[in-house]
Amino acid sequence: MKDVWIVAIPFVFVLVLAAMSDWDHPPIDSTQKGFRGTGMVQVDNPRTEADLAERNQVWESYGRVEPGGPPAGEVYENVQVLGALSQDQFDHLMLSITTWVSPEEGCAYCHNEENLAADDVYTKIVSRRMIQMTQTINSEWDTHVGGVGVNCFTCHRGQHVPEYIWVEEDHQEEASGGFSASRNNQNLGVEVTGYSSLPYDALMQYLTKDDVEIRVAALAALPTTEGGESIQKTESTYSLMVHMSEGLGVNCTYCHNSRAFGDWEQSTPQRMTAWHGIEMVQNLNEEYLIPLQSALPENRLGPKGDAPKAMCTTCHQGIPKPMYGANALEDHPELGAPVQ
């Protein structure tokens, strides 16, 4: 009996690890995306498709409202962004935003009900800026959102704060005592890195400013500033790629050609779309979200005091196209560009 247990223990250990991990057990669906034998395959787990479909149902639609009535800026006080809309369009958009962001609280989530024009509720300041950000995405980043655009529901899904945002985490402090005690911002299993040993600060490195280059190791044997990036930078790039893969629910070959990952000419069209997406998120974080730090209460800030920021998962939430490509501007074309 003792010998049986000695043999059985490794198998039990493997089964326990499989149950605790994010491993997908068979059967798995695969779709060939390139030439046979090249590994250009998209892998999907049919058991998660129903859950993804449930989580990515489109918003409740009230239809489109044609312009009617005087400009909202003449009817209501302190309308700084949407004043050029007609009163009917303005009221219609406010109703939709309430449904998308605060279905329980209604108007009171952003407004002082005794004085709707007042700016003394911080969420009104934030939502005004978010409307401007949404208009910017739809008017300046068509190379990524592809004409269908986004609206508040794309990220919020009926919640005050989008589920998939990120802040600088206050991870376990490193031990003191020399080089071996330094973790170098990695070797700590966290969700954003797919629980790998890769650096967990890749989002901070690459998604908070729009002048950063994302590169991998040099083609030469000894990396130089002219030939590529260091191994450490390469690991951060891989960490970002893991986040993108998880956020969109796709394999590496969704964007890259397995025979030449770095060659743009052999990559899929989605790689260019993703590149524009990275630039878009960098711009949104730098211009809109990070500056909101001063407007947010302490409980809305991260453990290090920074404002919540966007990432790929914020909109995509596990699928290649947010809301499976539903047109977010069909009912509200006024979100497609700043209102004149």
What does this molecule look like?
This protein is mainly α and 340 residues long. The protein folds into two domains: 56-161 and 327-340, Photosynthetic Reaction Center, subunit C, domain 2 (Orthogonal Bundle); 164-170 and 185-316, Photosynthetic Reaction Center, subunit C, domain 2 (Orthogonal Bundle). It is 37% helix and 2% strand. The chain has helices at residues 2-20, 46-55, 72-75, 87-101, 122-140, 142-145, 152-156, 202-206, 231-248, 269-289, 312-316; strands at 29-32, 41-44. It has a two-stranded antiparallel ribbon with strand order 1-2. It is globular, with a radius of gyration of 23 Å. The model has no long low-confidence stretch (mean pLDDT 87).
